[in-house]
User: What shape does this take?
Amino acid sequence: MQLSVNVDHIATLREARKEDFPDPIHAAVEAELGGADGITVHLRGDRRHIKERDFELLRRIVKTELTLEMAATKSMSDIAQRIVPDCITIVPETPGEVTTQGGLNLLRLKEDLKIFISTLRDRNIVVGIFVDPDIGQAKEAARLGAQYIEINTSTYSQTRVTKNKDEVIRIARVAKAAKREGLGVHAGHGLDYKNTPHLFSVPEITGFSIGFAIVARAVFVGFRQATQEMVEVIKGAR
Ligand code: PXP
Assistant: This one.
């Protein structure tokens, strides 16, 4: 079970004052020292937190696995092909959204995405798609040439523990179907120190992408320790 730490909100804090600190590069180093298996950033079209400079520097300093979250646009593909992260998770992007709103609807997007994905794969980038927990979406992700899906856990995360058993069952069904299609399975969005362990009952999930909860904890204990604590939580399932 792997943990990729999303450092976007260190850049959000930096941009709140238009300063050059705190630096997401520093956070990435601390996260790796804290035991993270990877670093994730979302380079948004509006560049409201992570900038190209961050992504470029991260490519040079990240020693684990660098994942770029990005929208399926030509300009993002050009940047990704130039900088070449280890992995790309394709996400939907809506101008003005506070955070990613749901998975990409693959039943609407079709053949263009197949070419888009194969261009990135030709650069030796491992390509995944962020999808809602829906078997049809997982099957479509495989058909379009993705290598993994990241299951959107925002509904799960917002549901009370007593009620989220149904959501875990839904996620488990999709994870199994995705694995049958030959896809890797990750999960992310809204996960924290308390709700992540309930997903350990889904063995197909091999990676978690977690950002906000770690950044929020880091304010009080430091980024390295906040990462270490999440690594400890995830070790419980290893
Ligand atoms: N996965 C995706 C696709 C995301 O867009 C985000 C948020 O940037 C995350 C995971 C991490 O979510 P959180 O910050 O709530 O942990």
Notes: The first strand starts at residue 2 and ends at 6. The longest helix spans residues 164-180.
